[in-house]
Specification:
The protein is built from no helices and 16 strands. It is mostly beta strands and 202 residues long.
Length: 202
Amino acid sequence: IWFRGAAHGTVLTLANSANTTLINAYTTSYLGQLTVSDMRLQGNKANNTSGTGLIFASGAGRVFNIVSQDFDNDGFVFQDPSGGSSFDLFVDHLYAYGNDRYGVNIDCADGNYDSLQVHHNNYGLYSKDHGNNRISNLYAYGNTLGAIYLIGVTNNILSVGKIAQTAATGYGIILEADPAVGGSDVSYNIIANYEIVGSGVA
């Protein structure tokens, strides 16, 4: 299954007062290969009180070349409904900006993410209690509270990226344990080849 637009000129806009997720690729069973690509998602947050651009939780698949902007909640959310791995998820060339919570929310393990640009969200990239994700070529700037926010995550690799934050726009990288799961620590993560301009690590 391939849900495909015609590049960023294909614009899907959340209707006034819809207060929901614009694209919800969520299932509790394995769908096989699902691809979503080549479009722009517009959250219309001036006329909604909640909303997320894309929730992708369908097992193996690929998501690429999508802009998600102006949502009350998250630009992109990646989940595994079974609570295990993300079954060979490949994500690349995503652009998330102007979202009021997270630009990209990684709520699953074992995914591959490349070429992400997150800016002017509340947090740029967020992940909690998951591991074994590979994230490369992340560019984050101007996010209000932080560029990268990791809670209780392990065995992730973040390689090659640039963070441009200032004291007025939050931390570059935030790492913290999760007290809700017995204080699970932030361990065995590798963050390498990052250029950080402005605020640093909390």
